[in-house]
Amino acid sequence: MPAVNRLHDKGNKGRIVASDQTFVVVGGGHAGGRAAEAMRMAGFDGAITVIGQEPYVPYERPPLSKELLATDDGPEGCFVNTAEYYSDNKIDLRLDCTARAIDTGSRHVTLEGGGTVSFDKLLLATGGRVRPLEVPGADLEGVHYLRGIDDSQAIRQELTANRSIVVIGGGFIGLEVASSARSRGCRVTVIELQDVLLGRVTDPEIGRMYAELHRGHGVEVLTGLSVERLEGDGRVSQVVCAGGKTVNADAVIVGIGIIPNVELAAAAGIATDNGITVDQYGETSAPGIYAAGDAANHPNPILGHRLRLESWQNAQNQAIAVARNMCGEQEPFAEVPWFWSDQYDVNLQIAGAPSSWDRLVTRGAPASGKFMVFYMAGDRVVAANAFNLGRDMRFAKKLIESARAVSDADLMNEDMKLRDLTA
Ligand code: FAD
Predict the structure, then answer these.
(1) Ligand 1 centre and the CA of 311: distance in Å?
(2) Which of 30, 239, 327, 333 is close enough to 321 for a disulfide, judged by CB 3.0 to 4.6 Å?
(3) Taking residues 177-191, what's their average pLDDT?
(4) Cβ(297) to ligand 1 under 6 A?
(5) First CA to last CA across the chain, in angstroms?
């Protein structure tokens, strides 16, 4: 996992820590796990309870579409911390446990099946759930979604050589599944509704490159095609698209995005708008109640607008920043968004989350497999994609953060070090 852990960047300096208080975290995923850890590292020695719906200790999800599908590894490598860590650090980790309601007045969380947990401060790290495919046949056996460990293990069972796997959705998760399925010798078809892959997060040019990458690895990539229904006798056997095109399917993996889990917050009267609305410290409209990770919509002072991110870095660093603020730090969370994806032998790293750009500038030869693409708005870099060049990403982030003017010619000139352009 990448080493972008703010816990180790900052040491434990003079925070206000009230040891008679109780902090509750709802959501035992990546953000929830890191937040609980960060509270302890900040010196908070009051009670911490983490309420997690899943049966696993908090874990990181990126390997679920990569290593866990492509290898026979177990999920242990994904865990944020071992089960012992929680008991050793007196963190009351309640797994298989769902929070059903929050009472912001009497300050307690009601659990499914009864019981309540009181809090002084509460962190909502409820993440997101998969967006369902709403077509006839979507409930047939052999149709899968990918969000958790159990999903990943069920999909892996399907990925045996020569079986026909249809991936619906050409975003990162769908494409990583396609890559993993090819590594196991499956026949793979990707069906994407938009005209290009990765349309939500990259320039169409990058989407076209990814279509070629997958085609080059033997994947049938169908874009601009909508799925009308799934057919089969109990179990899926084919996908029927608009216009009558049919694709054989031994299994279907649906990756068409997530829906942020905001209902718990909204029902408690907490403001939501494409996520749980938080301020720069991670605090929601309800005092003492915070949110972080995929569920949180936060203001980003570097980008100058609000956004909700679905990324490892954000789940980790925002959770840590917000946990420290809960412990009294009061430091705004401000980072250039960063995301990565591994498909075949290509490591793509993305910095920035621009709403618009006017052109792309390429540094290095795409044919070499190692190059960068800068997204430009006037003379500023607003985002960057690095292909097998992760080491240069920190300079791209600096260019985005500083909003420094830079010429296309300098960016393209590989004799000029990127670091020198940031100085
Ligand atoms: P989650 O990890 O979703 O955790 C939320 C938890 O809250 C869940 O366990 C949920 O069950 C629980 N919960 C929800 N409601 C309740 C409730 N009422 N009571 C109790 N518990 C509740 N990002 C990258 O940057 N790079 C990658 O390569 C990458 N790959 C990915 C691959 C996959 C397959 C997936 C699914 C995601 C990937 N991501 C990647 C995104 C990254 O993993 C997420 O952004 C991150 O997991 C978000 O963490 P979170 O804690 O906010 O949410």
Answers:
(1) 8
(2) 333
(3) 98
(4) no
(5) 29
pLDDT of residue 52 exceeding 60 = yes
Q: Does residue 30 sit in helix, strand or coil?
A: helix
Percentage, residues of the chain above pLDDT 90: 94
Pocket test of ligand 1: the residue of 4, 30, 94, 200 to mutate, having most ligand atoms within 8 Å of its CB, is 30
Other Cβ atoms within 10 Å of 280 Cβ, number: 16
Q: How far apart are CA 151 and CA 145, in angstroms?
A: 6
Q: What is the pLDDT of residues 282-323, one digit of tens each?
A: 999 999 999 999 999 999 999 999 999 999 999 999 999 999
Among 4, 64, 94, 126, say which to mutate for ligand 1: greatest number of ligand atoms within 8 Å of CB: 126
Residue type, 367: A
Higher pLDDT, 12 or 381: 381
Q: Which ligand 1 atom sits closest to the C-alpha of 295?
A: 52
DSSP collapsed to 3 states, 314-328: HHHHHHHHHHHHHCC
Q: Is 317 left (phi over 0), alpha (psi -120 to 50) or beta?
A: alpha
Q: Does 49 contact ligand 1 (Cβ within 6 A)?
A: no
Q: Which amino acid is at 216?
A: G
Report which residue type is found at 410: D
* Tokens found for residue 231: 């057919």
Ligand 1 atom 22 nearest Cα: 27
Ligand 1 atom at minimum distance from 339 CA:
25
- pTM, rounded to two decimals: 0.95
Element (H, E) at 271: none
What sign results for the dihedral spanned by CA atoms 303, 307, 313, 318? positive
Q: Which atom of ligand 1 is nearest to the CA of 342?
A: 28
How far away, in angstroms, is 419 Cα from ligand 1 center?
A: 33
Bridge partners of residue 99, in order along the sequence: 111
Q: Which tens digit of pLDDT belongs to each residue from 409-419?
A: 999 999 999 99
pLDDT in tens, 330-380: 999 999 999 999 999 999 999 999 889 999 999 999 999 999 999 999 999
Give the Cα separation of 379 and 99 in Å (integer).
Answer: 48
